Amino acid sequence: MPQPNSGHLADNATSGKAGTAVGELKFEAALAELEQIVQHMEEGRLPLEESLAAYRRGSELLQHCQQQLSDAERQIQILENGTLRDFKSAGGEAP
Protein backbone atom coordinates (compact mmCIF):
# COMPACT_ATOMS: atom_id res chain seq x y z
CA MET A 1 0.00 0.00 0.00
CA PRO A 2 1.61 3.35 -1.02
CA GLN A 3 2.26 5.95 1.66
CA PRO A 4 1.15 9.55 1.15
CA ASN A 5 3.86 12.16 0.53
CA SER A 6 6.66 9.63 0.48
CA GLY A 7 9.67 9.72 -1.79
CA HIS A 8 10.41 13.28 -2.80
CA LEU A 9 10.78 14.85 0.64
CA ALA A 10 13.29 12.27 1.80
CA ASP A 11 15.47 13.05 -1.20
CA ASN A 12 15.20 16.81 -0.61
CA ALA A 13 15.74 16.48 3.13
CA THR A 14 18.91 14.44 2.87
CA SER A 15 20.54 16.05 -0.13
CA GLY A 16 18.90 19.45 -0.30
CA LYS A 17 17.31 20.95 -3.36
CA ALA A 18 19.29 19.90 -6.41
CA GLY A 19 21.94 18.38 -4.12
CA THR A 20 23.05 21.72 -2.67
CA ALA A 21 25.21 21.48 0.44
CA VAL A 22 23.87 23.55 3.32
CA GLY A 23 27.05 25.64 3.51
CA GLU A 24 26.61 26.75 -0.10
CA LEU A 25 23.07 28.10 0.36
CA LYS A 26 22.33 31.79 0.67
CA PHE A 27 20.30 32.77 3.73
CA GLU A 28 17.03 33.23 1.85
CA ALA A 29 17.28 29.85 0.08
CA ALA A 30 18.15 28.04 3.32
CA LEU A 31 15.26 29.69 5.15
CA ALA A 32 12.79 28.84 2.37
CA GLU A 33 13.88 25.20 2.41
CA LEU A 34 13.64 25.10 6.20
CA GLU A 35 10.10 26.50 6.07
CA GLN A 36 9.14 23.85 3.50
CA ILE A 37 10.54 21.06 5.68
CA VAL A 38 8.64 22.34 8.72
CA GLN A 39 5.41 22.49 6.71
CA HIS A 40 5.82 18.89 5.51
CA MET A 41 6.63 17.66 9.00
CA GLU A 42 3.65 19.48 10.51
CA GLU A 43 1.37 17.65 8.09
CA GLY A 44 2.30 14.49 10.01
CA ARG A 45 2.11 12.09 7.09
CA LEU A 46 5.81 11.29 6.64
CA PRO A 47 7.15 7.82 7.38
CA LEU A 48 9.62 7.63 10.26
CA GLU A 49 12.77 7.47 8.11
CA GLU A 50 11.71 10.48 6.06
CA SER A 51 10.85 12.40 9.22
CA LEU A 52 14.30 11.72 10.64
CA ALA A 53 16.01 12.78 7.40
CA ALA A 54 13.89 15.94 7.27
CA TYR A 55 14.70 16.72 10.91
CA ARG A 56 18.46 16.32 10.28
CA ARG A 57 18.35 18.56 7.20
CA GLY A 58 16.22 21.11 9.03
CA SER A 59 18.68 21.19 11.94
CA GLU A 60 21.56 21.82 9.54
CA LEU A 61 19.62 24.58 7.79
CA LEU A 62 18.70 26.22 11.10
CA GLN A 63 22.31 26.23 12.27
CA HIS A 64 23.43 27.66 8.91
CA CYS A 65 20.84 30.46 9.05
CA GLN A 66 21.76 31.31 12.66
CA GLN A 67 25.46 31.50 11.72
CA GLN A 68 24.74 33.78 8.77
CA LEU A 69 22.66 36.08 10.98
CA SER A 70 25.38 36.12 13.60
CA ASP A 71 28.00 37.01 10.98
CA ALA A 72 25.80 39.82 9.64
CA GLU A 73 25.31 41.16 13.16
CA ARG A 74 29.08 41.22 13.74
CA GLN A 75 29.60 43.06 10.46
CA ILE A 76 27.17 45.74 11.57
CA GLN A 77 28.95 46.06 14.91
CA ILE A 78 32.29 46.54 13.13
CA LEU A 79 31.11 49.75 11.46
CA GLU A 80 33.72 52.41 12.07
CA ASN A 81 33.63 55.95 10.71
CA GLY A 82 30.82 55.07 8.33
CA THR A 83 32.68 52.27 6.55
CA LEU A 84 32.22 48.54 6.85
CA ARG A 85 35.49 46.66 7.10
CA ASP A 86 35.94 42.97 6.34
CA PHE A 87 36.17 40.44 9.13
CA LYS A 88 36.71 36.73 9.40
CA SER A 89 33.56 34.78 10.20
CA ALA A 90 33.47 32.13 12.90
CA GLY A 91 34.08 29.60 10.12
CA GLY A 92 37.33 31.39 9.25
CA GLU A 93 36.15 32.61 5.86
CA ALA A 94 35.87 36.22 4.75
CA PRO A 95 32.37 37.06 3.44
Topology record:
Blueprint: H1 8-15, H2 27-43, H3 48-77
Main location: cytoplasm
Family: Belongs to the XseB family.
EC number: 3.1.11.6
Question: What this model shows, in words?
Answer:
This protein has 95 residues and is mainly alpha-helical. It has a domain at 25-89: Helix Hairpins, CATH 1.10.287.1040. It is 58% helix and 0% strand. Helix 2 (27-43) packs antiparallel against helix 3. Residues 1-16 have low confidence and may be disordered.
Portion of residues in beta strands equals under 5%
**CATH class descriptor of the domain at 25-89:** Mainly Alpha
How would a textbook summarize the main sheet? none
| End-to-end separation | 49 Å
Low-confidence stretches: 1-16
Total strands: the figure is 0
Query: What is the ordering of alpha helices and beta strands?
Result: HHH
Structural class: mainly alpha
CATH architecture of the domain at 25-89: Orthogonal Bundle
- The average pLDDT value, as a whole number, equals 78
- Share in helix: 55-70%
Helical segment count = 3
Outline type: elongated
CATH homologous superfamily assignment of the domain at 25-89: Exonuclease VII, small subunit
CATH topology of the domain at 25-89: Helix Hairpins
CA-atom Rg in angstroms: 17 Å
